[in-house]
């Protein structure tokens, strides 16, 4: 379960602290999903980064499976993020110099895997599921935008995360590719019973989710 309780965030600026999240609370159980919508600047990315343990809240708590990631040491926090959370950015954030298969394996390089061949097999399986079985040896530059984003989805899932977060994953794609990525995220979420949160400006994509969180001025409307 993801339990978000009165999460606040202010950024220090030269003209004093800038409040960006003004107390956000909600919970999502295993297997549940929601779209996140709201105007630019309303705090969607800030919220997602905090949920993804990429940034700390100024106040409030986030619990994933009853664990509070921000109570951990930096090292344990990094391990928690790597194992429990998958994150898909608007820009794919793939490494240009390595292959599609190697990109998907990047999150697994930090910990010595007991069974390397099993992990590689799972990466191949994921790439098959996102429709890229015949692109394993391509570099990101040799892929279309939609294909790159599908690699990013496969990479986010390599550790079977409990929480899958996507921040405008279809923002740079045409409508056909955007719809494909949206359906892919939802299909994989249902198969793996992750908690899924997707920030989107697309009402068509949001409609596919049972629930939409509407952000306005750093709060849920
Ligand atoms: N590192 C930062 N320092 C100061 N202000 C920031 C920082 N990151 C974001 N902001 C501000 O926080 C607000 C919310 O940003 P963001 O979460 O990116 O909104 P959204 O994703 O909904 O467009 C914006 O007004 C933005 O300028
Ligand atoms: Mg944003």
Can you characterise this structure?
It is built from 7 helices and 9 strands; from the N terminus they run βββαβαβαααβαβαββ. By secondary structure, the chain is an alpha/beta fold. It has one domain (2-220): P-loop containing nucleotide triphosphate hydrolases (Rossmann fold, 3-Layer(aba) Sandwich). The strands form 2 sheets. A 6-stranded mixed β-sheet has the order 5-6-7-3-8-9, sandwiched between helices. A 3-stranded antiparallel β-sheet has the order 2-1-4, with helices on one face. Helix 4 (116-129) crosses helix 5 and helix 5 (145-156) runs parallel beside helix 6 (175-192). Magnesium ion binds next to helix 1.
What would the keywords be for this entry?
26% strand; binds magnesium ion; alpha/beta; single chain; binds adenosine-5'-diphosphate; 221 residues; Rossmann fold; 9 strands; three-stranded antiparallel β-sheet
């Amino acid at each position: 379960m993801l339990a978000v309780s009165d999460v606040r965030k202010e950024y220090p600026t030269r003209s004093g602290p800038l409040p960006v999240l003004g107390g956000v609370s909600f919970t999502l159980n295993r297997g549940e999903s929601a779209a996140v919508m709201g105007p630019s600047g309303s705090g969607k990315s800030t919220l997602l980064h905090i949920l993804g343990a990429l940034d700390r809240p100024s106040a409030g708590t986030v619990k994933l499976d009853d664990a509070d990631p921000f109570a951990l040491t930096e090292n344990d926090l990094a391990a928690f993020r790597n194992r429990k959370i998958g994150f898909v950015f608007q820009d794919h954030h793939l490494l240009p110099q390595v292959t599609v298969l190697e990109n998907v394996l990047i999150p697994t390089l930090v910990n010595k895997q007991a069974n390397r061949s099993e992990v590689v097999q799972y990466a191949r399986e994921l790439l098959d599921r996102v429709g890229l079985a015949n692109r394993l040896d391509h570099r990101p530059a040799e892929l279309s935008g939609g294909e790159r984003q599908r690699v990013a989805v496969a990479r986010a899932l390599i550790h079977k995360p409990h929480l899958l977060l996507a921040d405008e994953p279809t923002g740079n794609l045409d409508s056909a590719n955007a719809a494909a990525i949206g359906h892919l995220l939802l299909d994989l979420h249902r198969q793996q019973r992750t908690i899924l949160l997707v920030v989107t400006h697309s009402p068509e994509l949001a409609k596919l989710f049972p629930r939409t969180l509407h952000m306005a001025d750093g709060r849920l409307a």
